[in-house]
Write a structure and sequence with these properties.
Layout lengths: L10 H6 L4 H13 L1 H12 L8 E6 L4 E6 L2 E2 L1 H13 L3 E6 L6 E5 H17 L7 E5 L4 H13 L2 E4 L6 H11 L3 E5 L2 E3 L2 E3 L1 H9 L7 E5 L13 E3 H8 L10 E2 L3 E7 L7 E6 L1 H14 L7 E4 L6 H13 L3 E5 L10 H9 L3 E4 L1 H10 L2 H4 L8 E5 L5 H11 L6 E4 L33 E4 L11 E7 L9 E2 L3 H9 L6 E9 L5 E6 L3 E4 L2 E4 H9 L4 E11 L3 E10 L8 H13 L8 E5 L12 H8 L16 H15 L1
The chain binds 5'-O-[(S)-ethoxy(hydroxy)phosphoryl]adenosine (WTA).
């Protein structure tokens, strides 16, 4: 089978799906010709409103002002819980698969509702209310979802921080949005490791003046220090509460903030992407329903951590809003061995399985026997997200994991977009390995060249922009609306700029080629070159650093760092250690460089700008392709850098 293969929709899938090829074409046309009519209808049928809106959408890309369902009232937690109680109260909402495969919890909608109400009551007791910010720094345990929903219930704004981030990263996020409360666990367990979450939290909040309390969930039996008057035990408080809890929900405006999630950009520190209530909920509900073709008895598995947008939208909000069963997975795909995913599929009879290309590539290497040992006959749809998927990995996923039966939905989207924007629909779209295929309803992608000219027609390559708002789009950068305008709407006036390169082929299919800015995508994790560079310099041994993405066969992109040592840095392997330690402490182990090259200078223009293009080529091993270096202040540094890199790769 070649990489140019096409995979038609299996007839059995099309006939049972919510959307088939004909209805996709019709609905897509309606959704772009009459977006207000289309979304009005979807909003009425998919979401429960406390009162309806005055206007479906109001927008102005020049000022970056977007509002959906203006004046509408609803509550996200009510949509994810209460509305299911009557007919599906005893259905399983969350299947939790712990790090240890023996450790499984099944939580029904009724039970989840109770836990969320109890937690909401607790939050209120500690003074958290509408509009307050709450940081959640938890492992993948049901309490993470419970706390998110409890915040939504009382109108508090959560900011989930991935439990792999350092104390400093946690602190920066808490301080940026002024959180009142931090929710963490004594420790986390992931694969063979434990993660000292409470210790890291203590270190972080030492410099967080707005934090009043830390709510500590007990994940393991390991004791942790508790500061009297500040730290609260989640279990003890709940036990004291018993059944004396409040089921009230706050009636929220469509445009009230639901959450802030920090993500890396090409410059500066990570920014607080703000999502609001009505549009976000509708977008994740609709995309989850149609892209994964969700039915009542589906068991939906999304392998993402709730610390990332994929976990927000497709572990928690989308599936629960649809009343589906969502699997929360605490472990990693290779623990205790590389068959873990398929063991989970067999034991829980997973029907829809969604993961990242980096995980697929890691598993391809481990061999097919790990997959074939388990029964995967329950699987019906496979999905990928987070980075471009190479055709080989796609074909392996399709042929080996899905036994050639299951359509693959390669979903393109971003933290900023809230939910998927480009993806096949399993019952409607013929797929091509490596292509995210066609836009979702209401999404109007355009391809522009570097100068901003819109490239019409098919068979064009350029940068991906979106020309009309969609309900789930971010509304602002928390506390810095100007940065929102600047980053997304100033490059190509009138358009939302994604930061991704893309090709629209002869059939109108989209192929995302990766970031065109200084954002790296390392094993599906977003990192900015600037933040990694600053963490490297903070080691104290490096005077100046430039970071580029380098090809990596599992991670997709690895981190290559060119470093100029300080005169007083000294020598020896200790230098590498210090740089690595600094990156881990300032950001997270996920930002650890894959290659460190100590060089005597960086290629700069005469005005002092680092020529990253040259470093990128060298990092990619394309030494001859560095191009014209005559504009450099010191062209000879390029030869030296090439030598250093070549030498490091010869060993
Ligand atoms: C990349 C993750 C190719 C892209 C949901 C985007 C993808 C960035 C795909 C956002 C895909 C995501 N094919 N590339 N299917 N999905 N990307 O914010 O570069 O963590 O801009 O959101 O991931 O990453 P983020």
């Amino acid at each position: 089978m070649t990489a140019n293969a096409r995979f038609p929709v299996p007839p059995g899938v099309a006939s049972k799906a919510h959307i088939n090829a004909t209805s996709y074409e019709e609905l897509y046309r309606l959704s772009v010709e009459s977006p207000e009519k289309f979304w009005d209808k979807q909003a009425r049928s998919l979401i429960q409103w406390r009162s309806l809106w005055r206007k479906v959408v109001s927008w102005d890309f020049a000022q970056a002002n977007v509002q959906w369902f203006v004046g509408g009232k609803l509550n996200v937690s009510e949509n994810c819980l209460d509305r299911h109680l009557l007919h599906r109260g005893d259905n399983v909402a969350i299947i939790w698969e712990g790090n240890d495969p023996q450790d499984v919890r099944r939580i029904t909608y009724r039970e989840l509702h109770r836990e969320v109400c109890r937690t909401a009551t607790l939050l209120k007791k500690y003074g958290v209310g509408r509009g307050d910010r709450v940081a959640i720094y938890l492992p993948m345990i049901p309490e993470a979802a419970i706390c998110m929903l409890a915040c939504a219930r009382i109108g508090a704004i959560h900011t989930v921080v991935f439990a792999g981030f350092s104390a400093e990263s946690l602190r920066d996020r808490i301080n940026d949005c002024g959180c009142k409360l931090l929710i963490t666990a004594n420790e986390g367990v992931r694969g063979p490791k434990t993660i000292p979450l409470k210790e890291t939290s203590d270190e972080a909040v030492a410099a967080c003046p707005t934090i009043k309390n830390i709510l500590v969930v007990r994940r393991t039996d390991t004791p942790c220090s508790m500061t009297p008057g500040r730290d609260i035990s989640y279990e003890e408080e709940l036990a004291a509460l018993g059944d004396e809890y409040d089921t009230a929900v706050e009636s929220m405006d469509s445009e009230d903030p639901l959450f802030i999630l920090y993500t890396s950009g090409s410059t500066g520190k990570p920014k607080g992407v703000l999502h609001t209530t009505g549009g976000y909920l509708l977008h994740v509900t609709a995309t989850h329903k149609y892209i994964f073709d969700i039915k009542e008895d589906d068991i939906f598995f999304c392998g993402a951590d709730v610390g990332w947008i994929t976990g927000h939208s497709y572990v928690v909000y989308g599936p629960l809003s649809n009343g589906a069963t969502t699997v929360m997975f605490e472990s990693i795909p290779t623990y205790p061995d590389a068959g873990r995913y398929w063991d989970v599929v067999e034991r829980h009879k997973v029907t829809i399985f969604y993961t990242a290309p980096t995980a697929i590539r890691a598993l391809v290497k481990e061999g097919d026997h790990h997959v074939k040992r388990y029964d995967r006959s329950s699987l019906r749809i496979l999905g990928t997200v987070g980075e471009p998927i190479n055709a080989d990995a796609w074909l392996w996923y399709h042929d080996i994991v899905g036994e050639g039966r299951c359509p693959i939905v390669d979903t393109w989207w971003q933290t900023e977009t809230g939910g998927v924007l480009i993806s096949p629909l399993p019952g409607a779209t013929e797929t091509k390995p490596g292509s995210a295929t066609r836009p979702f309803f209401g999404v109007q992608p355009v391809v522009v060249d570097e100068g901003g000219t819109v490239l019409d027609g098919n068979g064009v390559t350029g940068r991906l922009c979106i020309k009309y708002p969609w309900p789930g789009m971010m509304r602002t950068v928390y506390g810095d609306h100007q940065r929102f305008v600047q980053t997304y709407f100033s490059m190509y006036p009138g358009l939302y700029f994604t930061g991704d390169g893309c090709r629209r082929d002869e059939d109108g299919y989209y192929w995302i080629t990766g970031r065109v800015d200084d954002v790296l995508n390392v094993a599906g994790h977003r990192l900015g070159t600037a933040e990694v560079e600053s963490a490297i310099v903070r080691s104290g041994v490096v005077a100046e650093a430039a970071v580029v993405g380098i090809p990596h066969d599992v991670k997709g992109q690895g981190i290559g760092a060119f470093c100029v040592l300080r005169d007083d840095a000294g020598e020896g392997i200790d230098l590498v250690e210090r740089v690595v330690r600094s990156v881990r402490e300032v950001i997270s182990p996920i930002a650890t460089p894959d290659a460190l090259w100590f060089v005597s200078g960086l290629p700069k223009t005469r005005s002092g700008k680092i020529m990253r293009r040259i470093l990128r080529k060298i990092g990619e091993g394309e030494y001859a392709a560095v191009g014209d270096t005559t504009t450099l202040a010191e062209p000879s540094v390029v030869e030296e850098i090439v030598e250093v890199v070549k030498r490091s790769r010869d060993v």
